[in-house]
Amino acid sequence: MYEYLQLFQQFRDLKSLEEVKQTHHFSAHALRFINAITEILECLDAENILSNVLEKLAQSHQKHKVTIEHFKVTLAIAQQVISPLLSSESSRNSLKMVLDEATPIISAAISA
């Protein structure tokens, strides 16, 4: 986990996760993360728009040295957290499918 915190300049000097959670930078990034997940879910039926959203997301993280492995771990955690909140097995399967499909798109954008 601390490897991930090192990717954020604002968190590098903080010693604990509790300190990180109390910063406005953490709150702001958490909100951006939720907004990105929401945007991905809203684009489920528009494959070309979804690809564009994922490519932009990958490119915006490239300059911070975020790798595809970082994305894979983060997407897996997102799935674990969000899935229990969904009301149907169909919704959970759709979430898994879109997050699984996101990985190669993000990987290609990071590698470009």
Could you characterize what this model shows?
Belongs to the globin family. Residues 1-112 form the Globin domain. This is Globin domain-containing protein. Monomer. By secondary structure, this protein is mainly alpha-helical. It has a single domain (14-111), classed as Globin-like (Orthogonal Bundle). The chain has six helices and no strands. Helix 4 packs across helix 6 (89-111) and helix 5 packs antiparallel against helix 6 (89-111). The mean pLDDT is 90.
Shape: globular
Largest sheet: number of strands, sense, barrel closure: none
Distance between the termini: 27 Å
Average pLDDT metric: 90
Label the CATH architecture.
Answer: Orthogonal Bundle
Q: Spans with pLDDT under 50 lasting ≥5 residues? A: none
The tally of strands reads 0
CATH evolutionary superfamily:
Globins
Give the CATH level 1 class: Mainly Alpha
Q: Given the helix and strand composition, which structural class is it?
A: mainly alpha
Order of helices and strands: HHHHHH
Which bin fits the share of residues in helices? over 70%
Helix tally? Answer: 6
Number of domains: 1
CATH topology: Globin-like
Please report which band the strand proportion falls in: under 5%, 5-15%, 15-25%, 25-35%, 35-45% or over 45%. under 5%
Radius of gyration: 15 Å
Concise account of the structure shown:
With 112 residues, the chain is mainly α.
Summarize the topology.
Blueprint: H1 2-5, H2 17-21, H3 24-42, H4 47-62, H5 68-82, H6 89-111
